[in-house]
């Protein structure tokens, strides 16, 4: 326990009372002191024992061996003895008869006793108490009936919850059978939304209770309660649970734990805490309230101020706009919808030091002479000091437009100083500031004005001679640069330079500043002196030389400025020169100009004394090239500029600019990382190669001298960070970074303060595991980061979880990452109220007062399946008089894999004739319901199934017409025809939409259900025909017509009379005899015959056309070849043509459609060489023309013919046929042009293309016979040999060629 020190005297003896200890228990007590940095050493332990007390109740009072006259009583030792147990006391009596009381005192080792001499079948009350030296403890009571063996009790019934409060409820119930023994204990178990298991929350021993006040509940929690009754035998089964209820809200359980405060800057404090867990909010969480106030050294404080954080998961906040270097008290509270928690213990922290925000008070200044002023001042107001005052600076100046000078007083005990070497008779503005280690504070205000005393004036300025002759010189001058008072007069004295003892003098009033001296010697040098006078006397003299002449002119330019290397410094260069002729007018001043690198010329504002021949130009840039030139000026005017000097480069110097962006980050409890923005190369003053950074750090707890300040050098101008190690823990450090090179150190950075002793954890939690324990809960386990990576005491863990996969609709998924925070003592935690059957990505990080560590690697856990939500959008469509379509959408919260639905429906009102409940399982999202009662309201419910059925969505619907349905058809008239029933009706109003169609329904007279014959969908109708084939024969039917639109159906229009359908015999014979002509047999036969004839004619025409085209092509080729023959061949050809013309016979009869050959033998040049002529054709006179001789050659010419045109397989025609009539040729040619090469006839005439290709590839047969008209009649041979066709056909033969139909 923590005891605050006494406010009156922290060093006085302290005392406290320790409560909540165990009775009669030994304790070791130690005491330690602690401060902000940590705990001190513990004292030696002191042993003490708490006093003895009465014991607690005995355990488990039971009965055994129950008979009419005796019973055995058994008990256990008390759980809390609270001293030395000395014995037990047993008392018993007949129930409700105190006069029968009997007492038995027993030893401490007796735990059972047999009680005899009881009355039969009598209720007895037994009490057992334990005893110590202090006395008897509370008794455990039980009632039993003698002679009846006790059994397990029955659970209570009819549980009801009333008087619901934040922490309690009243539970009413009806006790069950007590098991022949009094109820020794009621156990109330609870089931919450966080946990699916039942947990005991309340116990009470009240045998006759019917009402229990259950305490110890958690506010704003959903509960179900049940009761278990206990008697001496044991516990009953649990009762049925109560309905679910929710306790009301209460203020949060406790304030945030581990509130730590750290100074972030001079005006900011960071507050950290451990957020409350979900069950600790006791209501709807809202956020946190931080209250703070400034306190002074006496302990009194200002008014409390507060800030609200509306984020219940937040664990830190930065308080801003605080006073610098001020001590604050901070308390934190959690708040919800109904109130705030108790405040946390007060945390105290001081903001960091800063510069004073106000100047010293009471600044005074008094002149003590013409060159000195004494300045005095007071303290800076305490609230504006903002740190430890280390010294003061006195700023003073006479011209507000120019920078002020200052004098440093480097201690805070001196509050007066004397300013010296001031200008005389000048008004000075004086201000004082205080500074801390972090820098200068604000100047005092308003400035103090004081004037130095009057004194003798300085020399008059700008003495010159604008007019000079041989005997006259006029001198002019200006007011002294340092008048040192009010000018009362001027005095001019002059003499020959060679006769200084002879002076001419004259005085002038202050308004006259010119004098003409006459009667001077020509061409002589005169020395003029001008002096001013104040109240304190004559001041300094200004001397000027003049030469009396009439020939004055401008001076010559000086010589080239000479620069010696020894005269070159890093920020200044000294050069010398030789003056030129003065043009008989003494020089008054020199003007100096310089150029930086190749830049323009710049003029030095100072006028150089004409008597000197060297000058030093200061305030130059290091490591920069410069050029110089000089101009002389006399009374006539300036000379020309001298020749510019050689280029001179200033030397390197220390860096001219400090680092910026300095940041210090703790990385362990003893080390920090220092980072900064590097200095640009141009600011290293020419020496960047040796450049680096010096990191200086100093502890506030152990200040050191400046020369002893720890330093760490980092070489290289590009370096921008360093890690400082082995620092003192629990201490604030000031960090300064200084750039340096070999020439020296640059300006230091402003110091940055950092607290060493805590750093964010560098390790993540280890061995993170997750397991789904229910559909809404995931149990997590982890190990803390390694001790070396915790960097201080952990405050807790942050658990981040995000939905990565969900069965819900996209709009229902929570995609924001959620956060829970648990204390550092936890190594496991349950994420509850998760979405069911949802995959989560989970990460855990540790945090301490310095901040958050790295997160662990993500793990993925999927919650278990749960009950699905109710289906959505239950709707009804296609509603008729006795059927409808019910459909629905999947539940928004599916909570698992939907494996089906159960649809239940029943009549909304009970009806004895047809009231029943129907359940049907489906896998889809719609169901057609039929056989409903007409114009009856039904209640439908649909439930989805995952691991079990979820809640139902319900809806009512009434069969029959709906709102917006059309009116029923009118005037339904029925008529019978030979084969059908004809229906006619008139349409009524169409309702809210056009009529889309009709239901035609029929009902047998012996049935009660209407059957739909057909459903039309082609709009308005006024008649319809129903074929007997759609009805049963010899059956009496009643018909009705129902119109429908998109809103529903109309009321039915009924037929007045029943219609009797014909018998089956009539339908098979009588009706079939009345077939239409297109179903008669004669019509079918005629149609088939006509089709066959048309097909034959088409094939014949195509074949003839193909043959004519082939002959035409072969004749043309033969003619072309014959034109190329020599004379002998032509004669031979003529004879052959003549013979063929005389014979008048074609090469092949029409029945054969021609012969197969590559080319005609008449067209071969080798005809007379390889083949002897055939016998004369005049030797036989056949009854009809015989085919001419067609020879199939096997020579190379024949083979070459396939190669020349492999696709040409046309039939060769004799020349006699070529000479047929023109009309024939013209017709054949026209037909050939119109013929399609891929036509049906060409396909067969040309044989198969693949077969021709195989002929081409195979080696041809050399020896095959020829076909002539002299061959024996009746011989016909056709063979396929070597890929070619060899055929000998008889004259007049009609044997078809391959590929041709025989009927052509």
How would you sum up this structure, described in words?
- By secondary structure, the protein is mainly beta.
- Helices cover about 10% and strands about 40% of the residues.
- The protein contains 10 helices and 83 strands.
- The strands form 24 sheets. Strands 73, 74, 76, 77, 78 and 79 form a 6-stranded antiparallel β-sheet that branches. Strands 28, 29, 31, 32 and 33 form a 5-stranded antiparallel β-sheet that branches. Strands 50, 51, 53, 54 and 55 form a 5-stranded antiparallel β-sheet that branches.
- Strand 39 (about 525-535) and strand 40 (about 535-545) form a beta hairpin.
- Helix 3 crosses helix 8 (about 1220-1235).
- The protein starts with about 25 loop residues before the first strand and ends in a 16-residue tail after the last strand.
- The model is unreliable at about 1145-1304 (pLDDT under 50).
């Amino acid at each position: 326990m923590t005891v605050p020190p006494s406010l009156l005297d922290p060093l006085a003896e302290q005392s406290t009372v320790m409560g909540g200890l165990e009775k009669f228990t030994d304790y070791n007590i130690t005491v330690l002191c602690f401060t902000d940095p940590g705990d001190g050493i513990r004292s030696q332990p002191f042993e003490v024992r708490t006093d003895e007390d009465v014991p607690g109740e005995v355990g488990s009072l039971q009965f055994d061996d129950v008979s009419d006259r005796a019973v055995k009583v058994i008990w256990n030792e008390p759980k809390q003895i609270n001293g030395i147990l000395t014995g037990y006391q047993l008392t018993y009596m007949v129930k409700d008869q105190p006069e029968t009381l009997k007492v038995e005192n027993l030893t401490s080792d007796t735990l059972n006793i047999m009680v005899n001499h009881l009355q039969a079948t009598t209720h007895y009350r037994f009490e057992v108490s334990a005893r110590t030296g202090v006395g008897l403890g509370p008794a455990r009571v039980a009632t039993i009936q003698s002679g009846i063996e006790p059994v397990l009790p029955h659970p209570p019934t009819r549980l009801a919850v009333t008087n619901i409060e934040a922490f309690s409820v009243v539970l009413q119930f009806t006790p069950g059978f007590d098991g022949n023994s009094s109820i020794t204990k009621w156990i109330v178990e609870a089931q919450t939304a966080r946990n699916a298991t039942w947990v005991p929350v309340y116990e009470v021993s009240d045998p006759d209770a019917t009402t229990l006040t259950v305490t110890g509940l958690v506010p704003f929690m959903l509960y179900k309660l049940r009761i278990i009754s206990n008697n001496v035998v044991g516990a009953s089964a649990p009762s049925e649970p109560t309905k679910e209820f929710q306790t009301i809200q209460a203020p949060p359980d406790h304030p945030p734990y581990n509130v730590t405060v750290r100074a972030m800057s001079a005006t900011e404090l960071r507050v950290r805490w451990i957020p409350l867990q979900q069950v600790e909010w006791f209501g709807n969480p809202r956020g946190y309230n931080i209250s703070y106030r400034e306190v002074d050294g006496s302990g009194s404080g200002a008014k409390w101020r507060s800030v609200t954080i509306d984020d219940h998961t937040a664990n830190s906040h930065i308080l801003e706009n605080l006073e610098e270097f001020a001590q604050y008290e901070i308390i934190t509270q959690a708040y919800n919808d109904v109130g705030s928690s108790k405040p946390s213990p007060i945390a105290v922290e001081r903001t960091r030091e800063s510069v004073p925000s106000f100047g010293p008070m009471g600044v005074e200044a008094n002149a003590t002479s013409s060159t000195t002023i004494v300045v005095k001042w007071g303290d800076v107001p305490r609230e504006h000091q903002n740190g430890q005052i280390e010294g003061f600076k006195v700023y003073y100046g006479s011209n507000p437009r120019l920078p002020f000078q200052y004098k440093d007083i480097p201690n805070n005990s001196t509050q007066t100083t004397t300013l010296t070497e001031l200008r005389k008779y000048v008004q000075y503005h004086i201000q004082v500031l205080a500074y801390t280690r972090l820098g200068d504070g604000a100047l005092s205000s308003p400035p103090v004005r004081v004037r130095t005393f009057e004194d003798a004036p300085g020399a008059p300025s700008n003495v010159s001679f604008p007019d000079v002759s041989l005997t006259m010189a006029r001198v002019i001058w200006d007011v002294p640069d340092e008048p040192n008072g009010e000018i009362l007069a001027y005095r001019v004295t002059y003499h020959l330079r060679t006769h200084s003892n002879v002076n001419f003098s004259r005085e002038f009033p202050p308004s006259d500043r010119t004098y003409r001296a006459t009667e001077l010697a020509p061409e002589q040098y005169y020395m003029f002196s001008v002096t001013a006078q104040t109240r304190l006397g004559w001041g300094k003299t200004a001397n000027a030389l003049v030469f009396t002449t009439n020939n004055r002119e401008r001076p010559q330019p000086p010589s080239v400025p000479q620069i010696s290397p020894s005269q070159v410094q890093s920020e200044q260069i000294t050069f010398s020169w030789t003056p030129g002729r003065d043009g008989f007018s003494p020089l008054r001043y020199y003007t100096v100009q310089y150029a930086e690198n190749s830049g323009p010329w710049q003029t030095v504002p100072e006028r150089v004394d004409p008597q000197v021949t060297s000058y030093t130009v200061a305030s130059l840039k290091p490591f920069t090239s410069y050029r110089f030139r000089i101009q002389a000026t006399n009374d006539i005017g300036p000379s020309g500029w001298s020749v510019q000097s050689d280029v001179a480069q200033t030397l390197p110097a220390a860096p001219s600019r400090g680092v910026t962006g300095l940041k210090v980050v703790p990385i362990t409890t003893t080390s920090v990382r220092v980072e900064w923005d590097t200095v640009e190369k141009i600011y290293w003053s020419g020496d960047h190669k040796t450049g680096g950074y010096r990191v200086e750090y100093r502890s506030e707890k152990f200040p050191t001298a400046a020369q002893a300040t720890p330093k760490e050098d980092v070489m290289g101008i590009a370096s921008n960070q360093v890690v400082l190690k082995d620092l003192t823990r629990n201490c604030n450090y000031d960090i300064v970074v200084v750039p340096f090179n070999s020439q020296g150190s640059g300006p230091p950075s402003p110091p940055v303060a950092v607290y060493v002793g805590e750093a964010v954890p560098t390790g993540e939690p280890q061995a993170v595991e997750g397991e789904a324990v229910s559909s809404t809960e995931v149990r997590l386990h982890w190990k803390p980061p390694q001790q070396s990576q915790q960097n201080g005491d952990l405050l807790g863990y942050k658990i981040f979880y995000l939905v990565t996969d969900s069965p819900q609709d996209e709009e229902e998924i929570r995609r924001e990452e959620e956060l829970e925070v648990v204390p550092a003592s936890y190594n496991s935690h349950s994420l509850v109220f998760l979405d069911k059957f949802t995959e989560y990505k989970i990460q855990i990080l540790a945090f301490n007062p310095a901040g958050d560590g790295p997160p662990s690697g993500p793990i993925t856990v999927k919650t278990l399946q749960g009950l699905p939500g109710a289906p959505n959008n239950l709707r009804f469509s296609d509603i008729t008089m006795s059927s409808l379509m019910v459909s629905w959408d999947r539940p928004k919260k599916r909570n698992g894999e939907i494996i089906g639905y159960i649809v239940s429906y029943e009549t909304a009102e009970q009806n004895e004739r047809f009231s029943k409940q129907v359940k049907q399982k489906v896998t889809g999202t719609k169901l057609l319901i039929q056989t409903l009662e007409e114009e009856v309201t039904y209640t439908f419910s649909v439930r989805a199934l995952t691991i079990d059925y979820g809640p139902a969505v319900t809806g009512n619907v009434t069969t029959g017409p709906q709102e917006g349905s059309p009116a029923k058809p009118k005037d339904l008239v029925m008529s019978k025809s030979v084969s059908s029933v004809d229906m006619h009706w008139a349409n009524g109003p169409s309702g809210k939409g056009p009529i889309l169609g009709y239901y035609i329904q029929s009902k047998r007279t012996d049935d009660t259900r209407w059957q739909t014959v057909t459903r039309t969908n082609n709009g308005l109708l006024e008649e319809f025909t129903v074929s007997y084939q759609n009805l049963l024969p010899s059956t009496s039917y009643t018909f009705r017509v129902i119109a429908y639109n998109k809103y529903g159906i109309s009321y039915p229009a009924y037929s007045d009379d029943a219609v009797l359908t014909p018998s089956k015999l009539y339908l098979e014979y009588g009706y079939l005899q009345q077939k239409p002509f297109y179903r008669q047999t004669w019509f079918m036969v005629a149609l088939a015959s006509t089709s066959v004839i048309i097909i034959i004619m088409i094939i014949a025409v195509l074949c003839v056309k193909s043959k004519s085209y082939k002959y035409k092509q072969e004749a043309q080729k033969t003619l072309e070849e014959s034109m190329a023959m020599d004379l002998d061949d032509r004669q031979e050809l003529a004879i052959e043509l003549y013979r063929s013309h005389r014979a008048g016979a074609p090469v092949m009869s029409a029945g054969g459609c021609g012969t197969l050959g590559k080319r005609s033998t008449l067209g071969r040049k080798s005809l007379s060489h390889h083949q002897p002529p055939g016998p004369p054709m005049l030797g036989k006179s056949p009854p009809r023309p015989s085919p001419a001789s067609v020879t199939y050659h096997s020579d190379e010419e024949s083979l070459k013919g396939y190669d020349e045109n492999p696709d040409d397989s046309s039939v060769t025609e004799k020349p006699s046929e070529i000479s047929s009539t023109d009309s024939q040729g013209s017709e054949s040619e026209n037909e050939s042009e119109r013929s399609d090469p891929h036509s049906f006839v060409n396909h067969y005439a040309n044989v198969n293309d693949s077969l021709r290709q195989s002929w081409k590839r195979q080696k041809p047969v050399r020896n095959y016979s020829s076909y002539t008209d002299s061959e024996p009649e009746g011989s016909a041979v056709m063979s396929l040999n070597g890929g070619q066709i060899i055929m000998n056909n008889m004259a007049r033969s009609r044997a078809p060629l391959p590929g041709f139909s025989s009927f052509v």
